[in-house]
Amino acid sequence: MATVTTPQRPDLDLTLPATLEAVDQACAQVKAWLTEYGLGRLCFDMSLLVREALANAVVHGCGNDPNKEIRLALAQEGDDLVMTVEDPGPGFDWRGPNRPFVDLFEEHGRGLPILRYYAAEVTYNDKGNRVTLRKPVVH
User: Fold this and answer.
1) Are strands 12-17 and 69-77 parallel, antiparallel or unpaired?
2) Quick check: 118 and 81 in contact, CB under 8 A?
3) Potential cystine with 127: which of 18, 28, 91, 106 (Cβ 3.0-4.6 Å)?
4) pLDDT of 45-93, one tens digit each?
5) Domains, the chain, ordered by start
6) Which of 5, 7, 135, 37 is nearest to 80 (CA)?
7) Helix axes 43-56, 111-118, angle to 10 degrees
8) What is the pTM of this model?
9) Is the per-residue pLDDT at 7 higher than 60?
């Protein structure tokens, strides 16, 4: 049986100021990275995941303080894309109860359900200031 090898993609590792403008720039860089390495079909899903994770870090983790920095790392591990977003904030209790529904008329509260829906796996560090998302690379 023949083995098919895909070229190794270099990791994308960004440090950005805690601003929504930087979130937009990071989303553009992720789209370019995905497109360059033949994963353009994942641009919508990954851009949504990146935007939600980074926006949570900007607003909740950094309090919209542009002097604070957020780290975004994206890599391929086997058949998965793995994205990590970490902020210097105090974190949150991710073990707490999940909201049973999303109120579409509220300005907040949709980020974590979106992460859970679009990623195959969502994990947090103990402190709750780093989220790791896994998204399968569908062939």
Assistant:
1) antiparallel
2) no
3) 91
4) 999 999 999 999 999 999 999 999 999 999 999 899 999 999 999 998 8
5) 12-136 (3.30.565.10)
6) 135
7) 150
8) 0.85
9) no
